[in-house]
Design goal:
The complex is a heterodimer of chains A (about 110) and B (about 110). Chain A is about 0% helix and about 50% strand. In chain A, about 40% of the residues are buried. Chain B has no helices and eleven strands. Chain B is mostly beta strands. In chain B, strands 2, 4, 5, 9, 10 and 11 form a six-stranded mixed sheet that branches. In chain B, strands 1-3-8-7-6 form a five-stranded antiparallel sheet, with no helix packed on it. Helices cover about 0% and strands about 55% of the residues of chain B. Classes of the chains: A mainly beta (about 110), B mainly beta (about 110). Chains A and B meet through strand 4, strand 5 and strand 10 of A and strand 4, strand 5 and strand 9 of B.
């Protein structure tokens, strides 16, 4: 089954404690991205990756890092989380061969930073 | 500034009626549009897409209409069912841009 898998689904952490949210896709997609979803603001892109070792900032990259060492994985790293990063996070992947294609989303990670 | 927005944040319809969810966009360079459905506790799911060289596209119980003159996109759901209750997002891709830009969403509630 084609899917994007995120872990964990829920996470409560304290300010300043580094965390990583993992994302893996099994569709051999080249393009992967991270979004955060906040009430009234919709989905905003944090970072995206066009391929292995190629990453770029989205609309709201501050406070986040990503890496793309393998095609299937695209972890999101919060080096020093702050309460304003409390949000619902989604990883997505797309087939780069045709950029006019839909993105497949993971189930989401609800992060609370206290 | 550029935006992808929705006319109404909430929409309630009777079961069996047709639903129309609207979306406005401001960038003339946008050439690809997608509608997503997001159920509570889940990630967005693709419903239907349309390219800017088309005015209309139909799927199973859904139709997307694109009016490039007024930069307006709509999603029509026929014979709305309780399972259609969700938040619906439109998203656009702007020309050579690699990103999808999402609107803020419309909450559709189907009344019994």
């Amino acid at each position: 089954e084609a899917q994007v898998t995120q872990n964990p689904r829920y996470l409560i952490t304290v300010t300043g404690k580094k965390l990583t949210v993992t994302c893996s896709q099994n569709m051999n997609h080249e393009y992967m991205s991270w979004y955060r979803q906040d009430p009234g603001l919709g989905l905003r892109q944090i970072y995206y990756s066009m391929n292995v070792e190629v990453t770029d900032k989205g609309d709201v990259p501050e406070g986040y890092k990503v890496s793309r060492k393998e095609k299937r994985n695209f972890p999101l790293i919060l080096e020093s989380p702050s309460p304003n990063q409390t949000s619902l996070y989604f990883c997505a992947s797309r087939d780069r061969d045709s950029m006019n294609t839909e993105a497949f989303f993971g189930q989401g990670t609800r992060l609370t930073v206290v | 500034g550029e935006s992808v927005g929705l006319h109404l944040p909430t929409l309630s319809v009777q079961e069996g009626d047709n639903s129309i969810i609207n979306c406005a966009y401001s960038n003339s360079a946008s050439d690809y549009f997608i509608w997503y459905k997001q159920e509570s506790g889940k990630g967005p799911q693709f419903i239907i897409d349309i390219r800017s060289n088309m005015d209309k596209r139909q799927g199973q119980r859904v139709t997307v209409l694109l009016n490039k003159t007024v930069k307006h996109l709509s999603l029509q759901i026929a014979a709305t069912q309780p399972g259609d209750s969700a938040v619906y997002f439109c998203a656009e891709k702007r020309g050579s841009a690699r990103q999808l830009t999402f609107g803020s969403g419309t909450q559709l509630t189907v009344l019994p």
